[in-house]
Amino acid sequence: MTQEQLQDLAALRGKLDRIDDQILDLIEQRLAASADIAARKDAEGDRHLKIRPKRQVQILDRLKDRSDRAAPMLIEQVWREIMAHSLQAQAMTDLVLAPSDNPELLEARVRAHFGSAASVRWAASEAHAIRAALAGEAIAIVTESIPDTEGELRVFDVLQSEDGRNVAFAVGRVSAENIAIQAKSPAEAKAHQPKSDWTPGGWRSRPAEQLIDYPDPEALSRVERRLAGSEPLVEVADIIHLRAALARVANGEAIIMQGGDCAESFAEFDADKVRVTYNLLLRMGAIVRAAGSDVVHLARIAGQFAKPRSSPVETIGEVTLPSYRGDAVNGPAFTSLARVPDPKRLLDAHRQAQVTIELLQAYASASYADLPRVHREVGLKEPPRPISMFTSHEALLLNYEQALTRFDEASEQWWATSGHMLWIGDRTRQLDGAHVEFARGVGNPVGLKCGPSINADDFLRLMDRIDPDNLPGKLVLIGRFGADKVAEHLPELMRITCREGRKVIWSIDPMHGNTRTVEGLKTRMVGDIVKEVRTFFEIAEAEGVHGGGIHLEMTGSDVTECLGGSINLAREDLGRRYLTHCDPRLNETQALDVAHAVAAMVADQAKRANAA
Ligand code: PEP
Ligand code: CO
User: Fold this and answer.
1) Cβ(479) – ligand 1 distance below 6 Å
2) What is the CA radius of gyration of the chain?
3) Could you identify the atom of ligand 1 that is nearest to the CA of residue 428?
4) Ligand with smallest separation from the Cα of 310
5) Ligand 1, residues 210, 489, 509: which to mutate, most atoms within 8 A of Cβ?
6) Which residue, by CA, sits nearest to atom 4 of ligand 1?
7) Is the residue at 201 inside a domain?
8) What is the pLDDT of residues 469-514, one digit of tens each?
9) Which of 156, 190, 148 is nearest to 173 (CA)?
10) Which domain holds residue 68?
11) pLDDT confidence of residue 249
12) 165 and 242, same structural domain?
């Protein structure tokens, strides 16, 4: 470069510097003018937000029209940012984001639209975001449903994705004449926005743990079609009834007694078995009720036919075969034929579930459970009233669950009609996995097993995803840590639910963290089980959380699968009646032992609460 050219360049750079100075001076003037406007508005005692979305759009349109070189995108970005700072100069305005399935996308769109000047925070639920917009200098960003505008609140702007989809709606105290041109009225926006981005089959595009590999996909499809054409196993009204009952649990007014087989079996099924399970749960409930707490009875039955396994294969001696995955999938016999997944088993499971539910209903209405006797046994004087027994199982086989999911016009909701409550297992609770994707879309109460490997971040996001509206009675967190690990993990998780204002239920599964092998057989010690239950209630009390229930693997018959308890089963008893196809269950006496331990905790806590 010649000397002359270098001088030219320096002059040009000097020009840029002067332009930058001018731009800065102008920005300073603009901010000062904004502050003047704010003072004027304050003097008028205006409760509206300082933001003027309609005027912002007019400014952007006018500048884009005038521009020659500056691309519309440049104008949009620069002026959105300047206007954001102007707004903050008028009044510090927060952006409060309701939970979203895609928080990164939402936050990016919010930043692009409202600039980087405002503070962005996440609300625990849409209701929290709306409340912030009502009460403070805040804009609520809501994603799915549009709330009915309350008083001064109004949807004033729509955030769209690059491909023109509505991503979110901005809600705030903005007057009707100030709303952005492209914003639709809430009713209109609602009509244009699908109620949810969820479909019963959406899980299929997600990675799935514990998936069954069916050798004949066509046969599976045929079975799915048959199930899809069948009557729902449970009524939506009853699911709603359970949700209401669980809302009382969430509110500290009752305790969940949940229990049943680890895995239901086709071979061991008969009416007597259902009756015995039903009676056992009622007796356990009566013991706890006698101690002063109301009880919600949830049987682990009528759908508990499939198991997640730690290993996909099982080896005996020289032979390795696919693991037994539950009667709805393959057979327990250790032969290669039995272990082939057969979709027709889903139909058998469905039929057995249907008969089971009919039996439960018959026992309930005929008072077959002999309630008066049960009540006398535990010293309850009040006359027996009908007690509802709800069904529950792990939502593991998503082909089955999807086929039994129905849309209900009255509630405008999807419901899993395979059981009243479903839970997600500790092995299938991946945030972006298929099981969570399925569970987030149904109206049923959903359980979430929480084992030692759950981390705080996933835990928070799982709650947001499964229960975005923070509905009491929707989410049941079921801890399953093990007697010696529960004190290490549970307090932190409980603190998170408290801090976030989560209306969840905390329950404890003292079975799955306490499995050990004795003489080649999987077993559990009643001592460990009772210890985890006790520690759970102690921690809950210390954290100011309601100890909301227990979740047991148990059977009404006199098996010898777990050791200890008041009948004092010893290791030499193990082989005597070891009947389970999967995990070791408490027998009747042992299950009642655990119920007594719960009752004692409940009574003690009530005493302490009264004394305080
Ligand atoms: C179960 O409840 O049978 C089970 C497999 O539990 P988890 O998912 O907690 O291991
Ligand atoms: Co189990």
Assistant:
1) no
2) 30
3) 8
4) 1
5) 509
6) 425
7) no
8) 999 999 999 999 999 999 999 999 999 999 999 999 999 999 999 9
9) 156
10) 44-184
11) 97
12) no
